[in-house]
């Protein structure tokens, strides 16, 4: 894959514009289709040398065209190949029609395909052009292929996966391997599309990287390239006050653990100082569990105002175990002027008072990061959550615009979005990261980055990445505590 495009995510609509720009610049589109099909045949031979037969399923568009090229190349190489098509080959147009005409193999109707032991399916039914739920014949074929446990190589996307949203349109193949072209699409990273793709190969079919990056929007895969230039503020040699002072707000005596996890994570992630802010009744329990994290009693908004006179306390985490209600709202609105991670109960407290929070975020001049999982997102942004036409990325972007906050929309495919529309999709989180206390740890890492002066978007994206790396390092038996121990240094 091209290094320059490694982190770029291209929507199917942008890819169409890129194809057009390539054609306008004089690049022959049939040459691109030939490269695409050849890459698929090469992957098939490399990955399944023991296949008894390659079965190429071709659709009515250019994805099918790639399939005819692959079938021709496999047959040229001496493999046993069978081609089945959805729709009449005579109805194909343009490059796909040309690829079919050049293919020496006979074409049978899709419904005639009976899976056999030793088959490997090349799925070229639909790619970027999937526009609605799959037709009935495709359903039946996918069912037969799954029942027969036939391995599938998908061309561009497993048919049925929507390249823009990662949603499954009715049903889809589950591929062992997917070969896509030039750059990844959102559907390769967003769930459930991601797990339907199997291993993902990005093949350079020869469109100049410049044409791709010029037409790609503000969407990236979450790697250090997205925020690394802001990570120098986190040099561990810096004086502790210059690495910021993070305040984490604890709940009452029966729910203190979550805030302590955030505080410990904040310290481990590089905040210079961390203070756990506790109500009187939880002081004893908090004190008995803290060493490097400091403790301060704050009962009410008056106490908080007094503490806030110290301008060195520059970032806060409010939410984990805090309790839902007026106190959370009052505290959060006071902290919006600095840098605030609003998590868990902190967000839920604003379910009926969203406008006030969003207005404060718009006008405070501070940095606000909110970290909802799916349920919390639906509570804070019910209209956006209910809009079935939007992808998870588009939902996070809409929520960020509405709330004037950076949104970390959590899940196996966490999306971080800024009010400007800039967004990253995370891809390094192991499934084991969905463990109790994991979200509290993430909030603490975001808080540490904010305390160290990172802009909100970069602070959040870098935290999600470090959290994912920590999960991988901590391994399958992880707990929130081992997760904290495994937070890696910034790259
Ligand atoms: N630069 C590149 O990346 C290249 C990609 N190539 C390949 O081209 C496809 C995209 O091709 P496209 O023709 O745009 O789209 P598809 O082949 O995926 O499908 C479009 C046709 O399918 C019909 N359609 C869509 N959804 C359904 C459905 N649910 N049921 C039935 N038919 C459907 C659609 O018909 P409409 O009625 O909606 O117009 C089209 O006929 C990309 O994925 C790559 O594989 C190039 O080969 C090389 C360059
Ligand atoms: K496909």
From TrEMBL:
Keyword NADP: yes
Domain spans labelled YjeF N-terminal: 15-213
Residues that bind AMP: 410-414, 439
Record-linked SUPFAM superfamilies: Ribokinase-like (SSF53613), YjeF N-terminal domain-like (SSF64153)
Domain YjeF C-terminal, residue spans: 223-491
Keywords: ATP-binding, Isomerase, Lyase, Metal-binding, Multifunctional enzyme, NAD, NADP, Nucleotide-binding, Potassium
Record CDD domains: YXKO-related
Cofactor(s) essential for the protein: K(+); Mg(2+)
Binding locations of K(+): 63, 123, 159
Pfam families to which the protein is assigned, alphabetical: Carb_kinase, YjeF_N
Cytoplasm keyword on record: no
Binding locations of (6S)-NADPHX: 62-66, 127-133, 156, 258, 321, 373, 440
Record field: catalytic activity: (6R)-NADHX = (6S)-NADHX; (6S)-NADHX + ADP = AMP + phosphate + NADH + H(+); (6S)-NADPHX + ADP = AMP + phosphate + NADPH + H(+); (6R)-NADPHX = (6S)-NADPHX
EC id: 4.2.1.136, 5.1.99.6
InterPro entries reported for this sequence: Carbohydrate_kinase_pred_CS (IPR017953), CARKD (IPR000631), Nnr (IPR030677), Ribokinase-like (IPR029056), YjeF_N_dom (IPR004443), YjeF_N_dom_sf (IPR036652)
Cofactor note: Binds 1 potassium ion per subunit.
Listed NCBIfam families: yjeF_cterm, yjeF_nterm
HAMAP family in UniProt: NADHX_dehydratase, NADHX_epimerase
Family stated for the protein in its record: Belongs to the NnrE/AIBP family.
Oligomeric and partner information: Homotetramer.
Job description of the protein: Catalyzes the dehydration of the S-form of NAD(P)HX at the expense of ADP, which is converted to AMP. Together with NAD(P)HX epimerase, which catalyzes the epimerization of the S- and R-forms, the enzyme allows the repair of both epimers of NAD(P)HX, a damaged form of NAD(P)H that is a result of enzymatic or heat-dependent hydration. Bifunctional enzyme that catalyzes the epimerization of the S- and R-forms of NAD(P)HX and the dehydration of the S-form of NAD(P)HX at the expense of ADP, which is converted to AMP. This allows the repair of both epimers of NAD(P)HX, a damaged form of NAD(P)H that is a result of enzymatic or heat-dependent hydration.
Record's protein name: Bifunctional NAD(P)H-hydrate repair enzyme
Source organism of this protein record: Sinorhizobium psoraleae
Lineage: Bacteria, Pseudomonadati, Pseudomonadota, Alphaproteobacteria, Hyphomicrobiales
């Amino acid at each position: 894959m091209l290094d320059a495009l490694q982190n770029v995510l291209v929507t199917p609509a942008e890819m169409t514009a890129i194809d057009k720009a390539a054609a306008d610049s004089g690049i022959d589109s049939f040459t691109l289709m030939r490269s695409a099909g050849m890459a698929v045949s090469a992957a098939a031979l490399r990955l399944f040398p023991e296949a008894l037969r390659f079965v190429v399923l071709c659709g009515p568009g250019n994805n099918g065209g790639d399939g005819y090229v692959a079938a021709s190349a496999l047959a040229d190489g001496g493999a046993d190949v069978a081609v089945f098509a959805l729709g009449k080959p005579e109805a194909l147009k343009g490059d796909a029609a040309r690829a079919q005409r050049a293919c020496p193999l006979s074409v049978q109707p899709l419904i005639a395909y009976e899976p056999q032991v030793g088959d490997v399916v090349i799925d070229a039914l639909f790619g970027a052009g999937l526009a609605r739920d799959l037709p009935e014949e495709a359903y039946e074929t996918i069912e037969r292929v799954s029942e027969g446990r036939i391995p599938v190589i998908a061309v561009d996307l497993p048919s049925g996966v929507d390249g823009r949203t990662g949603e499954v349109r009715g049903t889809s193949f589950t591929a062992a391997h997917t070969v896509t072209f030039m750059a990844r699409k959102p559907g390769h990273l967003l769930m459930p599309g991601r797990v339907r793709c199997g291993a993902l190969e990005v093949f350079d079919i020869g469109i100049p990287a410049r044409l791709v990056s010029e037409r790609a929007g503000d969407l990236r895969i979450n790697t250090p390239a997205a925020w690394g230039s802001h990570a120098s503020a986190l040099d561990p040699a810096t004086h502790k006050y210059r690495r910021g002072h993070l305040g984490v707000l604890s709940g009452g005596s029966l729910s203190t653990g979550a805030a302590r996890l955030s505080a410990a994570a904040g310290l481990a992630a590089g905040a210079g100082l961390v203070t756990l802010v506790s109500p009187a009744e939880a002081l004893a329990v908090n004190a008995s569990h803290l060493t490097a994290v400091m403790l301060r009693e704050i009962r009410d908004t008056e106490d908080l105002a007094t503490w806030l006179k110290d301008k060195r306390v520059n970032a806060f985490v409010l939410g984990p175990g805090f309790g839902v209600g007026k106190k959370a709202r009052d505290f959060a609105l006071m902290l919006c002027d600095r840098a605030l991670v609003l998590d868990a109960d902190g967000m839920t407290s604003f379910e009926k008072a969203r406008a006030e929070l969003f207005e404060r975020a718009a006008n405070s001049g501070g940095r606000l990061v909110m970290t909802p999982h799916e349920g919390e997102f639906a509570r804070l942004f019910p209209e956006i959550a209910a809009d079935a036409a939007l992808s998870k990325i588009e939902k996070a972007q809409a929520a960020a615009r509405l709330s004037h906050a950076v949104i970390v929309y959590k899940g196996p495919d966490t999306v971080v979005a800024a009010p400007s529309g800039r967004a990253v999709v995370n891809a390094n989180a192991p499934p084991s990261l969905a463990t109790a206390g994991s979200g509290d740890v993430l909030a603490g890492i975001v808080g540490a980055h904010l305390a160290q002066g990172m802009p909100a978007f970069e602070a959040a994206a870098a935290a999600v990445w470090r959290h994912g790396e920590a999960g991988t390092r901590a391994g399958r038996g992880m707990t929130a505590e081992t997760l904290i121990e495994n937070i890696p240094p910034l790259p």
